[in-house]
Specification:
CATH superfamily of the largest domain in chain A: MetI-like
Main location (chain B): membrane
InterPro entries (chain B): MetI-like, MetI-like_sf, UgpAE/MalFG_permease
Number of helices of chain B: 13
Membrane topology (chain B): Multi-pass membrane protein
Number of domains of chain A: 2
Strand order of the largest sheet of chain B: 1-2
Protein name (chain B): Carbohydrate ABC transporter permease
Pfam families (chain B): BPD_transp_1 (PF00528)
Largest interface: A-B, 112 and 115 residues
Oligomer: heterodimer
Largest sheet of chain A: none
Mean pLDDT of chain A: 83
Low-confidence stretches of chain B: 1-26
Strand content of chain A: under 5%
């Protein structure tokens, strides 16, 4: 086979690759470029693929919108709270599963897997009623608890996987040298676990950051306690036909997730996030 | 390489017959492990099991706005289920749910298999670029993506209508996509396929890379055609992962609730109402908490069939729960 003919044979393949890349990236690109275009270019009959002039007006309007800082802060608080809580709880549980032997371990992991796959949108009605009965409606801690539960199963599964790759002999050696079991774990295994903890918490962060359904239905009257996804979904009501500002708000909201995914690309492409994070 | 769980979790250096008492905390009657899992169990009981039980109870009660406030609901047996099952609208919604699921899942599986096969054949640079693009599309938050799609399909200034008009399809000039049931349904399918393909393609691709190259070579030496190689070699090797991804996508169709709620709220009319949307509409918008709970119980039962399939596949894949 000569070289040129092989190159010709690869044309359909490369064309398909180009189409895939364009289809994947175009909506993301269009969001960002609309956000930077002046309004008269957005509302013109002839669309421009690349903005002629760039403007930060839309970002300014999005940031100055009512309560933007407040919702940003709410999102961060709820998300961080949920991730930290599930990290602490999952660390204990995954230690028990990966290092200790006890009756019911198999059943416990089965429960975790079922919880991981559970259709989280289904119990929204009873959760609404329960939080109403317990006076937890319209409050951020409710959301924190729900997100904690949504991220917990995934965190347990992943941390258990990471722990299993750390030889228990390391901790045993530290125990022989006079450490307590907890001390050995904290001083020996925990530092080795750091990358796993980091990656897991970032994926948990994205899951909680993006969550919409519970935030929408559990925060109703207390509009100050809304989170960013809910704010974004009602953005068009506030800003009407101002698509520039809407796209600027979307960009600001999507940015953390996009950055985290690109940073963790190695984990993502090896199937790391499967089963838990889906956009 | 297991796709649905991040690490193969090799049980290194763990002889199954550890003499009891060699390590502290190893005896099966020790309370330590139970203390460690207690918070996780407590959380799952209160936030997953209890709501599910509560949903079952509410679906057997007469539970409306009045009962929500006064809190004394009466048991009415299976009346809510009877009401639902004799409601033609409920059957329409159920039928639509299956159509929606089938269209989405078939498109996702076909497109992502093709993308995975393509990515494997690319050279290194091209492969990296495609994987990066897939990851970016995957990372896009659901609400942001939904908003962007609304903008892409905007009737007057949307790029889709402008491009279609420029290409000579004059009928798309200011075509109001979200006023037409079928058009809204199509946009939602496009959105969900766009968001789901990256995960499926990346997972299938990483499964493809585990097929040894020698197998392809010997098949090619034996004169097998490309489609024959896929049918007799690639697909059988991919099968377990393929089935896992397939059942995940079926389950995840029910998460389309968010896209539908943000974009159309189930409208126009009922055109994009699928079961989860119907349940929430009935419960939280019309205050028929009993009927809504019954509808979501039916959804859970329908879905658990797929869940059982998924778990059987997963446990066959790796006996990891010893």
């Amino acid at each position: 086979m000569t070289l040129p003919s092989r190159r010709v044979r690869r044309i359909p393949l490369n064309a398909a690759a180009v189409v895939t890349v364009v289809v994947c990236l175009f909506p993301v690109y269009w969001m960002v470029s609309t956000a930077f275009k002046p309004s008269r270019d957005i509302q013109s009959a002839e669309p421009r693929l690349v903005p002629y002039t760039w403007t930060l007006d839309h970002f300014r309007r999005a940031v100055q919108a009512d309560g933007f800082e407040l919702f940003w802060r709410n999102s961060i608080l709820v998300t961080l709270g949920a991730v930290l809580l599930s990290l602490v709880v999952a660390l204990g549980a995954s230690f028990a599963v990966a290092r200790l032997r006890w009756r019911g371990r198999r059943q416990f992991m089965l429960l975790v897997f079922v919880a991981q796959m559970a259709p989280w949108e289904s119990p929204i009605i009873p959760v609404y009623i329960i939080s109403r009965d317990t006076d937890m409606l319209d409050r951020l801690p409710t959301l924190t608890l729900v997100y904690f539960m949504i991220t917990l199963p995934f965190t347990i599964v992943v941390l258990r996987g990471f722990l299993a790759t750390i030889p228990p002999e390391l901790e045993e050696a530290a125990q022989v040298d006079g450490c307590t079991r907890t001390g050995a774990f904290v001083k020996v295994a925990l530092p080795l676990l750091a990358p796993g903890l980091m990656a897991t918490s970032l994926f948990g962060f994205i899951t909680a950051w993006n969550e919409f359904a519970y935030a929408n239905f559990l925060i109703i009257k207390q509009q100050d306690n809304r989170t960013l996804p809910v704010w974004l979904s009602s953005f068009q009501n506030t800003f009407g036909t101002d698509w520039g500002a809407t796209m600027a708000a979307s960009t600001l909201f999507a940015l953390p997730a996009l950055v985290i995914f690109l940073l963790l690309q190695r984990h993502v492409t090896s199937g790391f996030a499967a089963g838990a994070v889906k956009g | 390489m297991p796709a649905v769980r991040e690490r193969p979790a090799p049980r290194v250096h763990r002889p199954p017959t550890t003499p009891p008492g060699r390590r502290p905390g190893r005896s099966p009657h020790d309370l330590w492990p139970y203390a460690l899992i207690a918070p996780a169990i407590g959380g799952m009981l209160y936030l997953l099991v209890y709501p599910l039980v509560r949903a079952v109870v509410i679906s057997l009660q007469d539970f409306r706005l009045r009962q929500l406030i006064s809190g004394d609901a009466e048991f009415v047996g299976l009346r809510n289920y009877r009401t639902l099952l004799s409601d033609p609208r409920f059957w329409e919604v159920t039928g639509r749910t299956f159509v929606f699921m089938a269209v989405n899942v078939v498109l996702i599986m076909v497109v992502s298999t093709l993308v995975a096969l393509m990515t494997e054949r690319l050279r290194r640079v091209g492969r990296t670029v495609v994987l990066c693009a897939l990851v970016l599309a995957w990372a896009m938050p659901v609400v942001a993506a939904t908003t962007v799609f609304q903008w892409l399909f905007h009737s007057e200034f949307g790029i889709v209508n402008q491009s279609l008009t420029a290409l000579g399809f004059g009928s798309f000039d200011r075509y109001p996509w979200f006023a037409n049931g079928t058009a809204s349904f199509t946009i939602l399918v496009l959105l969900i396929v766009w968001q789901s393909v990256p995960f499926a393609a990346v997972t299938l691709y990483s499964a493809l890379t585990t097929v040894p190259a020698e197998l392809y070579e010997s098949a090619r030496l034996d004169g097998a055609s490309a489609s024959r190689i896929f049918r007799s070699l690639t697909f059988p090797m991919l099968r377990p992962i393929f089935m896992l991804v397939l059942s995940l996508e079926v389950i995840w169709t029910f998460k389309a609730f968010v896209q539908i709620w943000v974009m159309t709220r189930g409208g126009p009319g009922d055109a994009t109402t699928i079961l989860p949307v119907y349940a929430v509409q009935t419960a939280l918008s019309s205050q028929r908490y009993d009927l809504g709970s019954a509808a979501s119980m039916i959804t859970v039962v329908l879905m658990s069939g797929v869940l059982v399939l998924y778990f059987r596949q997963m446990f066959r894949q790796e006996d990891d729960l010893r």
